[in-house]
Amino acid sequence: MSKNFKLQSAMEYLMTYGWAILVIAIVLVALFALGVFNGASFLSTSCVASSGYICSQPAAIPTNGATTVTITLNFGQNTGSTTYNAIVALAPQSSPLNSAGYPSTITTNAVGTLTAGSIQQLTFLVPAAQFTSANAIGSQFSGYVWLNYSTANAISPASSAVKTATLIVKVT
């Protein structure tokens, strides 16, 4: 008789934990289907600037159907001196570098003069193919903001180029 009680107790133990494991498995499957375990959902939009530069409020909005995405950001410098003939460029992280050490795939925006402490809103049209899922909501772009400039107010082309910020932006 005592063996029957031991077997019944063992079966109740297994059934209780079996149901608990089944419920946990269903909850995990539901969370996975909702995208909770998607790593990209934890990344936020950010623009981290190098010392002396300002990069803030990046945003990405789909434009022209499925062909391009408009990226806007506030850009400026606070190095203590004025930069002339400034051209700000946006390049994806995967862009290969040319022989001069600058990215070959860039989208540019001519700024002109950047005085110390000034901030300008810039707009870039980036091909949707540069994003992780074309221009779908939540699709991500990772890249760098480059500044090409000269230190003298002259007509000559820009003479110095520096990588000023790292950009991660999601389509909203």
Written description of the protein model:
The protein is of the alpha+beta class and 172 residues long. It has two domains: 2-37; 43-170, Immunoglobulin-like, CATH 2.60.40. It has one helix and eight strands. It has one helix spanning 2-33; strands spanning 46-49, 53-63, 68-77, 83-92, 107-114, 119-127, 140-150, 160-170. The strands form two sheets. Strands 1-8-7-4-5 form a five-stranded antiparallel sheet, with no helix packed on it. The protein has a three-stranded antiparallel sheet with strand order 2-3-6, with no helix packed on it. It is elongated and about 100 Å long. The mean pLDDT is 82.
Question: How do the helices and strands line up, and which of them pair or pack?
Answer:
Elements: H1 2-33, E1 46-49, E2 53-63, E3 68-77, E4 83-92, E5 107-114, E6 119-127, E7 140-150, E8 160-170
H/E series? HEEEEEEEE
N- and C-termini, Cα separation: 68 Å
Second rung of CATH, namely the architecture of the largest domain: Sandwich
- In total, how many domains does the architecture comprise? 2
What's the CATH C level of the largest domain?
Answer: Mainly Beta
CATH domain fold name of the largest domain = Immunoglobulin-like
Q: Beta-strand percentage? A: 35-45%
Number of helices in the DSSP assignment: 1
Core attributes:
172 residues, alpha+beta, Immunoglobulin-like, five-stranded antiparallel beta sheet, three-stranded antiparallel beta sheet, 1 helix, 19% helix
